[in-house]
Amino acid sequence: MPRSGARRVLTGYYTAAIVLIVGWRGSSAVGLKLTGPALADLTIPIQTARLTLRAFTADDVDAVHEYQSLPEVARYQYWQPRSRDEVAVEVAKWAEPDGPPEAPVSLVFAVTLKDGGALIGDTVLLFRDWEARQGEIGFSFNPAYAGQGYATEAAAALLRIGFEHFNLHRMFGRCDARNERSWRLMQRLGMRREAHFREHALFKGEWDEEFYYAMLSREWADLVRDEA
Ligand SMILES: CC(C)(COP(=O)(O)OP(=O)(O)OC[C@H]1O[C@@H](n2cnc3c(N)ncnc32)[C@H](O)[C@@H]1OP(=O)(O)O)[C@@H](O)C(=O)NCCC(=O)NCCS
Q1: Helix or strand or coil: residue 52?
Q2: 186 CA to middle of ligand 1, Å?
Q3: Chain centroid to CA 161: how far?
Q4: How much is the average pLDDT of 157-178?
Q5: Per-residue model confidence (pLDDT) at position 185
Q6: pLDDT of 187-227, one tens digit each?
Q7: Where does ligand 1 bind, in terms of residues with CB under 6 Å?
Q8: Entry pTM
Q9: What is the helix, strand, coil percentage profile of the chain, to 5?
Q10: Domain spans of the chain?
Q11: Which residue of 77, 121, 171, 173 has the smallest Cβ count within 10 Å?
Q12: What percent of the chain has pLDDT over 90?
């Protein structure tokens, strides 16, 4: 995307207002080649201009079920529309730490509106390779709240945490090529389309077309510097 587009996302809507209350106290990892601080140093919830990204609790099952039960939300995910019981299992997993604090496997956040507190989606930061400092982002939102930039705002917060708190080198996201709302979101963030896998797998009975989008830490630094 044109640089000006990414800058608009970071500057106009998000970065100036993203207030990450994270602390940097250096790595507390023992016996691990971590270059970023440990999970224990990350202060959750995370605040952005309009959102609070917080940990999941068992009370969130109904709000998540409201959108994960929808065919349109499940369409390009590796799961089918979920029953309330299935959502309860997922939410219970998300509420627990995934991996050791010094090297988490993933961090899943409930995305809630500051105004009123409604849970509008979930977003995840996956640590794919600690040594090579590779991270992945994912997001899934209730369509009742679509088209207002909330998912982009939450995903921008994940990029900031990944690069600035965990010192990741590269962050990527992937989606079905037909999932235009997903890849447009990643373009809005200033991520580059790195790959288009053509008919490389079967997905829900059809050939899968998959896009990869990514950003390097120096590209993130450029975006942040340009906006200053
Ligand atoms: C992917 C997904 C999160 C994208 O949702 P979205 O509503 O398009 O994304 P956002 O919340 O960031 O909203 C962006 C839109 O709001 C608009 N917008 C309105 N007000 C805005 C504001 N104040 N700030 C920023 N954008 C604003 C943007 O222009 C954009 O509109 P456009 O797409 O018409 O250009 C959503 O479609 C989803 O959850 N899908 C189902 C799950 C899924 O497939 N997840 C991805 C798996 S790979």
Answers
A1: strand
A2: 10
A3: 10
A4: 96
A5: 98
A6: 999 999 999 999 999 999 999 999 999 999 999 999 999 98
A7: 13, 73, 76-77, 139-141, 146-152, 175, 179, 181-182, 184-185
A8: 0.88
A9: 35, 25, 40
A10: 3-171
A11: 77
A12: 77
